[in-house]
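--- STAGE predict ---
source: upstream dedup step, 1 unique chain passed
mode: sequence only
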Amino acid sequence: MNFSVNSGAANASPQPAVPDYEVKLFLDPNDVLDSDHNLTSSVRSYFGMPSTKTKMSVEYLDTADLDIDDEGWNVRARKMEDFDDDEFELTYKKRYPITGGDIDAALATAALDGFDADEDDYEAQVDWGYSKQTLSFSNKKTVHHGGYDGMELLSEVDAIEEAVDHAPGKFEDWGSANWGTDLLNDSKAYGPVDAKRWIGTWQNKTIYIEVWKIINESGSGYDYVVEASFKTSSRTDASAGIAQLETALTQQGWFLPTDELKTQMILDRY
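--- STAGE serialize ---
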């Protein structure tokens, strides 16, 4: 019997996941927002967006020392305007940095952690920004919790309870048994943070523009982060599309050449 064949099969590297791509670029709030911090009519007209928008509210759960974030994980609770009063969305996300644009290397690293082509519970996505790319794997769960109305977000206690109850296996046992749920039980809420989303079209793609209202560093007011994004299943389309979108935003005088790290801003300021 040729044991070397079996040994090689057993030690074969797992097949990497196949991600989709979300292109994200930022707009200068001073140029694209009106006095009520809504998109100006010229921006909406350019992207074929109605004046109506969807409100959302989000909060993150982490310890005071950000132990969850330190391991590349985020846990987020979100309320959307079109949800039922008792409906909320939980997202457990694992992030992998992409160095030097080498997406395949990040996918290979993630596959060794079990985020591979056979992964059914997490959606693989590459966030493709101005100068930074990040690979992420997200597990989203819809939960129902009574006692809330309208846009009211889960309280800290209720958010932690629901996040613990619905924690997926990879997050729960990351590195050691009950790692994730133990940290959640020692967590606090970072937020809530309010945002608004408009939906339009650009280059035959559905494009989203979100305006996030985040406490500023001094705590005396708010910074407004304006993000334009679209999704595609094609790496080639993402690469070409981000260049085209950057050109279009620059020509309109709206482009902000930076990568705004919204999650990190929230964790740092709340």
